[in-house]
Design goal:
single chain, Arc Repressor Mutant, subunit A, three-stranded antiparallel beta sheet, globular, DNA-binding, iron-sulfur
Length: 296
Amino acid sequence: MNTDLHPAVMGWYATHARDLPWRSPDASAWSVLVSEIMLQQTPVVRVEPAWRAWLQRWPTPADLAAATPAQVLRAWDRLGYPRRALRLREAAIAITERHGGQVPSDEEDLLALPGIGSYTAAAVAAFAFRRRSVVLDTNVRRVLGRLVHGTALPPPSPRRAETATALDLLPADPETSARWNVAVMELGALVCTARAPRCADCPVAAQCRWRAAGYPPDEHAARRRTQAWHGTDRQARGRVLAALRTEDELRPDQVRDLWPDGDQLARVLTGLLTDQLLTAVRDLDGVVTGYRLPDS
DNA sequence: AAGACGGGGCT
DNA sequence: AGCCCAGTCTT
């Protein structure tokens, strides 16, 4: 195992770590799981208040398992990717039914839950249960990519070599490894940032291969395409859901007024129905008379 | 391997 | 107008 980087990174984390509530020793495994789902593609500053409100309302998996999709979608508010809210509810149901209401500690069991992929399974195992696991999020990938491989940014999709590198650096002791994982993530979030890294504040700048190589540019820049927003299906979906968070039911004509392109709106509504983010209300003849958030 | 999937804040 | 954010799931 390579241990050269450990003292500097661990020492830096000891003095610079943010005081985030899900890092408290008192945080339940469930609260850690909720934080990890919310943090999938949503920044910390926006997650923190939502996380507090969510845990106050649904302190245990069994509490959330009893909620309706409409309730969780409204509570999710504008965190983005609302399918995460539905999957979190489904995960709560699975935990209640299959695991006696206790969040499982094995990565394999976590991975089997809805909405939990390789990152989140490893993160919950490490941060909630202090297990030794390879936590590979966007921060860790970027930090290790720069330090070890000398690249500006990691490839669009994770490579096996990245896991091998992370495993090679992972401390053998479980508790130490859990702290190492969060320390590297924190370094990526606060110092080794994607856009304008603060190398002057970096505890391992002297050991950074990217820095030593003179900061070569991102090799994969051409392959990263920025996602459009205005006029997209995603924006239309968001507009429909935003309206339904404040109204119990919308008539078809009210929904049509939400978006100028009727064909696109029809496609978007179909997608929302497929994703179970939306329910159509029909009269006795099967004619759609309205749309609602799913009650069950 | 590539595409879909939110929304906000910063440069 | 881009770019980025503690990713996951489907095709």
